Give the backbone structure.
Amino acid sequence: MKSVQIVEIGQPLQEHEIPMPKVGDRDVLVRVKAAGICHSDAHYRAGNSPVGPLPITPGHEVAGVVEEVGAQVIGAEVGDRVCLHYLVTCGDCAYCVRGSEQFCVKGSMIGKHRSGGYAEYISVPARSAVPLPPQIPFEHGAIAMCSSATSFHALRKGRLTAGETVAVFGVGGLGMSAIQLADAMGALDVYAVDINAERLAMAEGFGAISVDASGLDPVERIRALTEGRGVDVALDLVGLPQTMRQAVQSLAVFGRAVLVGIASEPLEVDTYSDLLGREAEVMGASDHLLQELPLLLEYARRGVLDLSDVVTRTVPLQANAINRVLDDLGAYGAGVRSVIVP
């Protein structure tokens, strides 16, 4: 089968013919119908976040159709539409039992530690294949498995409650989902911070208040818009030292900053004025949880989470096309979300 792989860190992905994946007794074989190209994939290619062993097929935003089921699989059938929870976990360790499977002691991630979705087929444990309602296109189901799910988990991690305010730093794929999900969770106001006018316009279409960081200090602007108070929850979805710091500085008293973007440089803050003086919190959000996906997909099925405009480009399963998208992502461009359609 065709696969586009990371063969060498820091170099373009390469297209290869590789064997069909093996299907264990508790696995399902999925024909890939859509695979999102995430900013994390650009980090993996660049070596900012370790992957391996090489060569490896990236792609952790995957949706498709079940083609084969293992002998011990119950509840999945050939022909089922599915999207894939990208964490492959044991289900038995202390973290898995308490529902924090992103810290599974035996866990791995598709597209990072094991073969992912930049291919014609992928094999995963049946428990990772989540039913995809017919109302949701494969492209939307794919990106929901990372950009939407990660934003949803970050908002839950930030303990967002109805009537609070939110600032979203970086309104790419994750940010567009974060805006809509914050609204669904009862946020009073959502501030979208970016330097891209097209993305800010789209964010306004989802009901956000845009803050153009290209020509002004976004922290000062947010404080002006909130009458000096700041926001209750701030998400940094970029991972740059500047945006992480701005997320912290935009907080209100008792505010919570949730860091999501993969950073290659450390965060430096004035602990007294930015944290102690406000009793503010800074926390990290890692991946998402299987238990969060049914509600997330129900939001998408009902149109509460609308990904129609978020998928701004589709590309074939070809190395050159995918590398161009990754190049754009590395430069913080590439529209909002690009999806591979084999």
